[in-house]
Design brief:
mainly alpha; 2 helices
């Protein structure tokens, strides 16, 4: 099941996650561990970087396979045309 996203949704880029900072908690108040909060965007950005790299690799492989299929289809079509031109013997 896919999540709904509006047409104006723009996915986060790794650099946006790395640059995201959270406001510190007020003095005397309990809050999140600042080390964890600053470490988390780097982890997310690393994951996004790997995902974008895998997506790019996949797109390149898809283009390579598509081009190979087109070449094969052209060769097959040319063989059919040549077979139709064979001299009667």
């Amino acid at each position: 099941m896919a999540a709904y996203r509006s047409s104006s949704y723009v996915p986060l880029a790794p650099w946006q996650v790395r640059e995201r900072r959270f406001r510190p908690t007020r003095l005397g108040r309990r809050g999140l561990d600042p080390a964890e909060v600053t470490e988390f965007p780097d982890r997310v950005a690393d994951d996004l970087t790997a995902a974008y790299r895998a997506l790019g690799d996949s797109r390149q492989e898809t283009a390579r396979i598509r081009d190979a299929l087109r070449r094969w289809q052209s060769e097959q079509a040319q063989q059919r045309v040549n077979a139709g031109r064979a001299p009667a013997g």
